[in-house]
Amino acid sequence: MTSSDPGTADYVVVGGGTAGCVLARRLLERTDGTVLLLEAGGDPDGIDTVSAPHRWVENIGAAHDWGYTYAPTGHVAGRTLFLSRGKVLGGSGSTNALVWVRGHRADYDGWAAAGARGWDHASVLPHFRDCEDWEDGASEQRGAGGPVRIERPRDLHPVAAALVEAGVSYGMPYLDDVNVPEPCGVGPINTDASGGVRTSTWTGHLRPVLGHERLTVVTGARATRLVITGGRCTGVEYLRDGAPATVSAGREVVLAAGAIDSPKLLLLSGVGPAEHLRAVGVDPVLDLPGVGRNLQEHPILGGVCFAAREALPPPNNNLEGTTAFWRSDPSLAVPDLQFVAVQIPYVSPEVAARFPVPENAFVIAPGLMTVASRGFLGLTGPDGGLHVQPNMLAEQADVDALVSSVEIALDLAAQPAFAKLVERRTAPGEDTSRAALVDFVRQAAMPYFHPVGTCAMGVHDGAVVDPDLRVRGVDGLRVADASVMPTITSANTNAPTAMIAERAAALIAAG
Ligand SMILES: Cc1cc2nc3c(=O)[nH]c(=O)nc-3n(C[C@H](O)[C@H](O)[C@H](O)COP(=O)(O)OP(=O)(O)OC[C@H]3O[C@@H](n4cnc5c(N)ncnc54)[C@H](O)[C@@H]3O)c2cc1C
Questions:
Q1: Any atom of ligand 1 within 6 Å of the Cβ of 39
Q2: With a 6 A CB cut-off, is 97 part of the ligand 1 pocket?
Q3: ipTM of predicted complex
Q4: Average per-residue pLDDT in the chain?
Q5: CA–CA separation, 226 vs 117, rounded Å?
């Protein structure tokens, strides 16, 4: 996979993940420039846990995972939470749970209303459509013939089918397609998989153009610093097999290293809160206070767990197959909760220690998709040590919504479709008082692995990039990945990140 670095390119893209693969492909198509992609990881082809949808959890903590952690707080019972990030071409899009959902119209209209001009739902819709090859074909909302094949899971597992049946009998509308502009209800999930094999921006966007005469992909190459001279970013320093190298960019450098590593690179290059940089021994180049701030993450509860009455069939699809979007409070304008029924006992280590987990078990796992809590990340020194603090559950509103989510999960479990599968509930325990459920939520909350917002787009003082994704105060440098989301989408973050990269390429091509 590694090609040799010519030392210069018109566009240097840092990070070959969900966004980076889109960017490389679209820059080739939309411009006449040369493109060089630097990726710290390697080629995912041949890694079974990447290609087989039902094995995705085995990617967590594997050799192709960066293995970050979220620092502990009392809000999550003092626990250090593992933060998985794919370190491989396709990035976290090669290792994730394959859920392909866009979120709610209000997410994007909210971005635009807060100053991100051009990112309202109507404006981003064409980029979502461009990206996908939806099994039902093209419509006003959906795209066909795009690089990433999207399908509903086939042969629903009994646990997945029960979520739909239980949701409908509970009162949720049936959603045949969860990617409508205002999803609220229960139905089959959309996954980036086809014929039992993962699809991704790696398989759909980048892999087909390997060998293009204007493309160089350098794997095993970890960017360490941006070269910034006279207010302009002119290149990137990186390490390849331990050897230092520099590539210069004739037109632009585009950061697509994800919501942890893009801000990290800016900080290491002296772009960030000047006071923080001085404190950790990095000379400030530009005082940009928002870098690393505004970190947002979805908590998922692992989980409301049940011993199954009869032996469950082996897990299939993405271990989920179906999903529900629902409100913790009926007065909310937008659903703030997502429920999945996971075909294995996906529980936090602390829940497992407290409530022994039977082998033949499954969970209903609620996730909070509209979060009030905000975190941050910063360097611990000039060599790149990181402190990442999402402040998960710091805001009472988040705890309250998750307590409601457990109550809704228990109501779903009481519906006939689940009742016939369940022998007994194993977690939470008998005590379902509010105090007991708050305690359970703090022990069960795990990251959904959806960090965003650390290089937020906008026009306010805390914004890192402007609505054209240009780093404010540095020429020749943009960020185009999950880190630019001003607020987290009310659903999983992969499809929105691919959309961001599709739009970024259009903006770059427009000059
Ligand atoms: C286990 C897991 C499950 C998830 N499940 C889902 C899901 O089901 N649905 C969903 O929508 N979202 C899911 N997500 C989140 C989703 O995958 C991410 O939001 C999305 O991939 C973010 O895209 P990105 O391009 O910003 O970052 P990434 O895809 O993480 O890409 C960043 C890339 O940059 C590379 N990189 C980082 N630093 C450097 C450096 N210094 N030099 C060179 N390269 C570098 C990385 O190796 C990586 O390839 C999950 C994530 C994980 C980890």
A1: yes
A2: yes
A3: 1.00
A4: 97
A5: 27
